[in-house]
Structures are given as structure tokens and as C-alpha cells.
Design goal:
7 strands, Rossmann fold, binds zinc ion, seven-stranded mixed sheet
Length: 306
């Protein structure tokens, strides 16, 4: 809670763009620009400097050399679109996708969190103890889709949830603060299937489309990966209606121009498509410290705290 009595959501992510794609509507919903009673903080672990550049004419060594800086500009523009005024970066190096040589760089988020989870977590705990969030939202254990930095972000957020309120844990990181709810953002199977059916009916390929010409082994691996990216509908506890923030979310997605293709699945669907599909961002409450057990389904991440 801040000094104005606003309840605070802290979203813990890996790279610039993840916050907008997975929970942009939620971030806008709770930003002080849209609510007198809540506020939103976005924390990103890395600057995403090993990301792909999806604009062919900008996919050059020079652009890659300054990609971290570019992406910090993109997230600033995205946050402006969503009305989010607080966002910070932990400053770890991007690890790259699974198998990328960046995975082995000792400066990367993956290596830091693997070799020294508490030392890595202290960076986030310092922010938690300063900002005093009531709710933390991050990824599931698979990091949404298996990217090493996403898995790192999820582990660091869970560890911070455990220790931030313990005054004996690294007291030099600030006075203890205990957040009350911890969420992971999820895609339920039914939503995945609906989005995929619509994309396929329009001939738009996505990461959920079955790869062509794959070997049987690769196809099986891909099927397992795709299954892990979504979850059974019945584990969803919380659905946030983002209908009124769809256009802001779209503008924020467009702000991440080097990462998100203008003719890719996220931007080829219209606002009306998203309304038809059900304009919700969905979560599972992983843990809480509420006096009274929550009742599900929830439509508000701050349910039980207001
Ligand atoms: Zn990412």
C-alpha cells in the first residue's frame, strides 16, 4: 500500500513486452491513471537485449548492439499507453532462448538465479520493501513457455514472496514488507483453443499452429511444449475483464515494435475479435496470507484486501 492508501499490484516479468502481452489490460486496470484506489508497478529482470528483431530492415548488427536500449524505450512507450507510471529493471543480462549461448553467460538472469537465488532475489526484495505491494503477479513455474529468463523471473518472484516479510532475511535490503497475494498469469486450454481456431480460420500462423514437416519426435516435443503453455480451465481462480483497456493494450503491443510483428497473431486480431473471444486476462492464485480464505472465481486481484 502506498502513502495515499492505494493498494499496489507488482508485476514481475522477464523482458520488455512480456508485461504487455500477458497482462497489459490488468496493468492498465490497476494503474492510478484508471483507479483512485490502486496502482501498478512493473519489474522487468532484463532489458531483452538478445531478442529477435522482427522488422527485417532493422535486423542489423548495429540495431542488435543497441537492442537493450531500444527495448527500454519501447517499454516506456508501452507503459505510457497503459497509464502505468512505475516500471523498473533489475539489470540482469538477457539469457536468450533455450539453448542459446547466452544461457551460459555468467551475467545472465538464468545463471544468476540458478547459482545464487537469494542474491538474485535480493534485488527484487529491495524494491518490494520500498514499494510495499499488496499483490504480486508473475509466471507459472514453466515461465509461460519455457524461456530461461521467464523461469528465472517466476523463481525469483516466488522466493521474494517467501522472504520479503521476514525481518531477519537480509535486513540491509530494507524493512520487512509482507505482500498478501501471489498470482501466476495463465492461459486456460479453452481460451487457447478458441484463439487458435480463429487464427486458423483466417490463415494466420501462431506458435500454437502445428509445425509442418516436423519429424515425429519433434512433433511430439512440440505437442508437450504446447500443452505446457496452457492449463486446465478449472485451475483458473481469477478472471480480469479487460474490455475497456483493449485499445490501450493494442497500442502498448504496437510500442514493442522490434519484438511483435504487425502482421503476426497478436495484432492481426481486432478488438472486436478479442471481445468475441472473451476479453479476459486469467490467473491462478498460488498463495495468500488473507485472514479469510478467498472465494473463487474472483474478478479482482485485490479481492479480500479492499
Ligand atoms: Zn520474455
Amino acid at each position: 500500500m502506498d502513502s495515499n492508501g492505494r493498494l499496489i499490484l507488482m508485476a514481475v516479468h522477464a523482458h520488455p513486452d512480456d508485461e504487455t502481452i500477458s497482462m497489459g489490460g490488468t496493468l492498465a486496470t490497476y494503474a492510478a491513471a484508471h483507479s483512485a484506489t490502486t496502482d501498478t508497478y512493473v519489474i522487468t529482470g532484463t532489458r531483452g537485449e538478445l531478442g529477435e528483431i522482427v522488422i527485417p530492415e532493422r535486423d542489423t548488427p548495429e540495431e542488435h548492439a543497441r537492442l537493450g536500449e531500444t527495448r527500454m524505450g519501447e517499454i516506456a512507450a508501452a507503459m505510457a499507453a497503459l497509464g502505468v507510471t512505475h516500471f523498473e529493471n533489475l539489470g540482469f543480462r538477457d539469457s536468450g532462448m533455450v539453448g542459446d549461448p547466452g544461457n551460459d553467460d555468467p551475467r545472465c538472469y538464468h545463471q544468476h538465479s540458478t547459482n545464487d537465488l537469494d542474491g538474485t532475489t535480493e534485488h527484487l526484495v529491495r524494491i518490494i520493501r520500498r514499494v510495499k505491494p499488496d499483490v504480486i503477479a508473475t509466471y507459472d513455474d514453466f515461465g509461460g513457455y519455457g524461456h530461461p529468463d521467464h523461469i528465472a523471473a517466476a523463481r525469483v518472484a516466488r522466493r521474494a514472496w517467501e522472504v520479503a516479510g521476514d525481518p531477519t532475511w537480509r535486513p540491509e535490503a530494507g524493512p520487512a514488507w509482507t505482500p498478501k497475494k501471489l498470482y501466476e498469469v495463465r492461459t486456460p486450454d479453452s481460451q487457447r483453443d478458441k484463439v487458435l481456431a480463429l487464427l486458423e480460420s483466417r490463415g494466420i500462423e501462431s506458435w500454437w499452429s502445428e509445425p509442418k514437416d516436423a519429424t515425429p519426435e519433434d512433433l511430439e516435443k512440440w505437442r508437450q511444449w504446447r500443452a505446457a503453455m496452457a492449463c486446465p480451465d478449472d485451475i483458473i481462480t481469477t478472471r480480469i475483464d479487460i474490455a475497456r483497456h483493449l485499445s490501450a493494450k493494442r497500442r502498448a503491443i504496437q510500442a514493442h515494435a522490434t519484438q511483435i510483428k504487425s502482421d503476426g497473431p497478436l495484432l492481426m486480431l481486432t478488438e472486436q475479435d478479442y471481445l468475441d473471444l472473451g476479453a479476459f486476462e486469467q490467473y491462478r492464485l498460488i498463495d495468500h496470507r488473507l485472514a479469510t480464505a478467498p472465494t473463487f472465481p474472483e474478478s479482482d486481484l485485490f479481492a479480500g484486501l479492499r
